[in-house]
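#onboarding

Welcome to the new folks! Below is a worked example of what a typical request in this channel looks like: someone posts a single protein sequence, and someone else replies with the predicted structure as tokens. Don't worry about understanding the tokens yet, we'll cover that in week two.

Example request:
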Amino acid sequence: MAPDQRGHGHADRPADFSREGHVADAAVLAARLGLENVVVLGPSLGGVTAYRLAARHPGLVTALVVEDIGAEVDDDLSVCLSWPERAPTRAALVRCLAGSAPYLTDAIREYPDGWGLAFAPEGTAASQRQLNGDHWDDRLAGDCPTLLIRGIRSDVLGVGHARAMVARRPRTRLVNSTRGTRSTTRSPWSTRPPSGTSSPVRDPRGPGGEPPRAGRRAAG
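Example response:
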């Protein structure tokens, strides 16, 4: 299951883009679907939502896969405010997106009045502002097994920070993916499920769904 987070894809565009709102959405979805003992995968912004969900609902989350995001976030997506709401052709929209276009391929849509994106740029910028900050308390809470995936050319999650995330929290394993730069598997604005990585990604709970032994870590 790959739900769109608020302000992304086909989800509603509320005024509240706080981290608390994102976590509450995930918890409500799980409750309404009767989900228990879930493995949560969070790419980019969703990675913070994932480990905050685990910190606040330890009985719900049994394992995490956190993709290309750290415990300290400081980014600016205000560039997206210059993108047009509609363009006459797909090619015209891609030209307007310029250097950001490769990250947005999966989010481009054709609408009755032209070509646009599957999200509201102003919501994305607001969401990023709410995401910025220190999230170590939530990252270190709990001890469910965690698989941390980092793109080797990532400009979001540095090598040192990724290693600190492994060293400071037991039962965390780091996998370096050879795919991607900003995001290891897809655009952070895409509405499609992740396509996988070139590095083998195994169940973070270990063989048979059992948690790996404490202290089992991979070198960063």
